[in-house]
Amino acid sequence: MRMFAEILFFVVVFIVIPLQVQRRFPDFSKIFPMVVVWMIAGVATGWLLPEIFQAETVKIFSQIGFFALQVFGLATGTHLEPEKILKENRKIIILGLSSFIVSGLVGFWAFGYFCLDKYPEKFQGFDPLIIKTVAGVFSGVTALPILSALLYSFGLTNTAFGKANLAMATLHDFLLWPMVGVITLTAGGHGRGGLTSLVFISIYLVAAFVLVSRTLKWLEKFRPAKKKWELTFSLMVMIVLTIASSLASNFVGLHYLLGAVIAGALLTSDYKKIVQKIERPVLRYGLPFFIVSAGLGIKLGSLENVVWVFFGTLTICNLLSNGAGVTCVARAMGFSWREALAFTSCLSCKGIVELAVAHDMYASGAIPREMYESAVMMAVTLTTLTAPWLCLVLRGHWNIIKKIISESEKEEETQALAPEFAMD
After folding, report:
1. Which of 23, 275, 335, 359 is most enclosed, with most CB atoms within 10 A?
2. How large is the average pLDDT for residues 288-317?
């Protein structure tokens, strides 16, 4: 009975009420999209009311959230065009690499100089090299699921701009998880080494983009003629592909989500249309379970002064390093200042990925509690700033969105998106 009451309470407080607020105050949702509200609510609830839900209830939330995340990851992958990006848009790959590398190096140096050297007593018993490397990872990572949800809420997922940001965030995750494997292996004695992970990842990608793509084309021969059986056939193919890709990605050292994203990218146009039809309801009614339940697992302490110093260092380093690694590099590649700043705002989004990495690092004994708490605060802060920052850069300048929108977009879709950024 209590479990049922807790589930009902969750649905009302974290889904029904926020969606009603969004409908009544649409301008508010542009500045603070629901994904950001869910993230803040989850972390705040886990910190201030840690015993509000039973462990069994939180487990149910996590299971529902995991399923929703996989479906949303599959939908996110359908918007990617990996072959087109590799052949025609190498600038995006270079920009994604530069943002990760520059941010990582700045975080590595700055945290060592301003925090590790100034507060050595907080890092007694910890490896200084690992501490600085983790700080670099915190600075370089971008949150793929939260960023995808934000871009969807702005109507930018199907634009060239949205696809470029999703591609760079996916690239960041492929760089991130092998590094996490190396750190946890070194600090805790478990996990898979980085070189081994890279070998497995390479095999996985080759198998995915060569074998799976050909298998999907071969299966088209067996597609039923009747519509009711055709939909069942398509759903079965997508379910099997998603499960297999997610399990394979987890085996090679990546997150389950990346497996779903890769599966979505491999789908043919007929499958993609089916997935994209369920993207909106999954985002609104399923993803809250994942985002909030992830926040419920965050346990913050008393937030002593040194935590605020670490938080300030990580946050400022991230903003400055993204300014150098994204804004300046994008300008050098020929993008306008507004396009460059828009890229910077999106790649500063941390979200759930940062929380997951911080939790793994803390659980493995790689970082102290104060650094873990500061990373959580930075993730929440930068994720909250992403939407207002993007609005500030793009609002009133719809012509930039019109410029970067793909030529295949229908005219009515363009007209539907325009009011989002129209000048009041």
Report:
1. 275
2. 86
